[in-house]
Amino acid sequence: MKKFQRYQEIINILNSYKHVEVKKLSKSFNVTEETIRRDLEHLEEQNILIRNHGGATLASRDDLSYYYRSTKNLELKKIIADKVLNYLKDKDTIMVDSSSTALEAIKLLASKSYSPKIITNSVNLLYELSNTKLNFVSTGGRLNKYSGTLVGAQAMETIKNYYTQVILLSCNTMSTNGFSVGGEEEGLTKKQMLQQGSLVIMLVDSTKILNDVNALFKFADYNQIDLIVTDTPKLPEEFIPYIEHHKIKVI
User: Fold this and answer.
1) Residue 230 in contact with residue 206, Cβ under 8 Å?
2) Rounded CA separation 139/97 (Å)
3) In this model, does residue 66 exceed pLDDT 70?
4) pTM of the model
5) Contact in structure between 58 and 18 (CB atoms under 8 Å)
6) In whole angstroms, what is the distance from residue 42 CA to residue 36 CA?
7) Residue 198 half-sphere exposure toward CB, CA atoms < 13 A
8) How far apart are the first and last CA of the chain?
9) What Å distances lie between residue 64 and 24, 34, 57, 87, 221, CA to CA?
10) Which one is predicted more confidently, 63 or 59?
11) Sheet of 249-250: strands edge to edge?
12) Collapsing DSSP states into helix, strand and coil, what is residue 174?
């Protein structure tokens, strides 16, 4: 198993059990304990976990670094961006959260020379696409320096002042309970964004579709979503009743 595969497996275990042990990982992956310690050290540098004696615990998902989020499952995010483009290209106003998946979608939109007004709480989106034809409105607010997200009272007040044709969101986890993220403040901004648009689009790569696994803060139910865009051709059977009952389109 390559180290990047171990990283993902360790993260999957942390998402389920919140804690990992060096000895158990060493046996499971058939590598030395020193190799596992190096893996944990790398993941700690990415703000994914906190090392402790004999193992590590999951850090707040709200603290995942932008570098980690933007490089994880990048090919899946590009597939999603390509799929959602047709729903964005003829729109004049779009509200966008700080997710790296939404960023890929807006990057693609900008590369096609479209120029809608974008309201966002993503510092990374503002920075990376400031020289494009897109017209930006920043929510302002307090900066979460790890995730590049603007949160807090100021961000919330700005969001309340704008109504857009599309709301573009993502999540840490899509389960049969709904859509959730790791931080309360990030979740509250997404929750407010849901109230501000005509078409609510949820971008979810297949690694986040986890049935009975939830992140800390639930921000959306299925009845609030109009369209789910994912890289997988078919959702797990457990999700079908929710999709059909709420008449959600999935592409």
Assistant:
1) yes
2) 10
3) no
4) 0.75
5) yes
6) 10
7) 8
8) 32
9) 24, 24, 14, 29, 24
10) 59
11) 135-138, 117-120, 93-96, 164-170, 197-203, 227-229, 249-250
12) strand
pLDDT of residue 13: 85
Query: Do 66 and 124 form a contact (C-beta atoms < 8 A)?
Result: yes
Task: Specify whether the CB–CB gap between 173 and 180 falls below 8 A.
Answer: yes
Pairing of strands 197-203, 164-170: parallel
Alpha carbons within 13 angstroms on the beta-carbon side of residue 146 total 16
Q: Please choose, from the candidates 21, 13, 27, the residue with its C-alpha nearest in 3D space to the C-alpha of residue 54.
A: 21
Residue 134: helix, strand or coil by DSSP? coil
Q: In this predicted structure, what is the pLDDT of residue 214?
A: 82
Tokens of 110: 């900008």
Q: Does residue 65 carry a pLDDT above 90?
A: no
DSSP percent split of the chain into helix, strand, coil, nearest 5: 45, 25, 30
Question: To the nearest whole number, what is the mean pLDDT of the chain?
Answer: 90
Residue 50 predicted with pLDDT over 60:
yes
38 contact partners, CB below 8 Å, separation of at least 6:
none
Instruction: Record the tokens describing residue 117, joined without a space.
Output: 């007004």
Q: At what angle do helices 153-160 and 184-193 cross, to 10 degrees?
A: 10
